[in-house]
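= Tokenised fold =
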Amino acid sequence: MDSEFFRQRAVLARGLAENADPFTKKRLLDLAERYDARAGGPGPSRASRGIGQPTPLASGPYRPRSARRHEEVKA
């Protein structure tokens, strides 16, 4: 099997991971990494695979914009 085969399998595994539950997604992404390693070249980095995933919100109480504007006016 050549490196192109393993690269294609890695792409397929990542595509399946997009619609999978969290447990299966992790396993599919791990599988894709192994395929990339067997292909002999670096695949997409972990950072680039994370694109499109929601960013965690900062901790702290939620304040609507209208409340923040009123605080600025009072100051």
